[in-house]
Amino acid sequence: MSTTQPPSLSPGDGTPASVDALITALERVGYFADRRLATAVFLALRLQRPLLLEGEPGVGKTALAQALAQVLGRPLIRLQCYDGLELREALYEWNYAAQLLHLRLAEGQGGADASALERELYQARYLVRRPLLEALQAPPPGAVLLIDEVDRADEPFEAFLLEYLGEYQVSIPELGTVRATHPPVTLLTSNRTRDLHDAVKRRCLYHWLDYPERERELAIVRAQVPGAAEALSAQVADFVARLRSQPFANAFQRAPGVAESVEWAKALVALDTLQVDPEVVQDTAGILFKQREDVAALTPALTAQLLAPQEG
């Protein structure tokens, strides 16, 4: 009889005590991580290092941050990156309207010293905190910061991130250096629309997140779509796995992600589907694929091949 104790969370900050504990805790909130991914997350937590997750869209990068926030009992702060993202949208900006009102009141009273007035204008109460600063100043035990799709931002923004990623601090000219008292758990995601600078990668732990294996995807579908019959969940996992495999994957520009698998299973349940057949695949192809060319590529003949029993 085994005497192994069940995995548990370490006392204090709620950080999982082991990789196995982390896997179990993530599964409890509906996220099924393989051991390599769980090890990368566990080390990021223990070493207090940012974790860079790269992979195809829809493999569960953003969902991991959401699940981790639940496991750790920390608020999730999300910075969605895009081309042209500015510092004031990511870090902070000043409440100019409130500053102007303060300035007018001071002028009305007269006799205000210029240097003293400047100090009054640049106080923390006039500071509008954006995601990065909000994460640095989050109360105990800290926050989970998701810097989502960092590859969509431009190179100057990457350069700005270096101080934060390396030291969990930022510099505000009017206030000085702001350091985190409780370093945020930081996850960066990238769909590899472009390569990130080596300086960013060196400051992070790294993990390539691939599509899940069939059994893990089946577990995800079961957890997320409890109304689906066992046979239907298995068919969904099998069909999507074959779509992503060769030679079928060559027919499509982008394979369905885990999110599409789950949505497809929900749609099949809503249609009272008992068994996946070519007709229902054709009718629901727009859930699996988001591009016209890919929907068109899923021809009846190809669908029949995908649904055909596998040899062996």
Q: Can you walk me through this structure?
A:
The protein is of the alpha/beta class and 312 residues long. The protein has three domains: 146 residues, Rossmann fold, CATH 3.40.50; 33 residues, no CATH class; 93 residues. The chain is elongated and about 85 Å long.
Helix content: 40-55%
User: What is the chain-wise order of helices and strands?
Assistant: HHEHEHEHHEHEHEEEHEHHHHHHH
Query: How many H/I helices?
Result: 16
Q: Structural class of the helices, strands and pairings?
A: alpha/beta
Ranges where pLDDT stays below 50 over 5 or more residues in a row are 1-12
* Total beta strands: 9
CATH class of the largest domain: Alpha Beta
**How large is the radius of gyration?**
24 Å
- CATH level-3 fold name of the largest domain: Rossmann fold
Give the overall average pLDDT.
88
Strand content: 5-15%
- Note the overall shape: elongated
How many strands, what sense, and barrel or not for the largest sheet?
Answer: 5 strands, parallel
Domain module count: 3
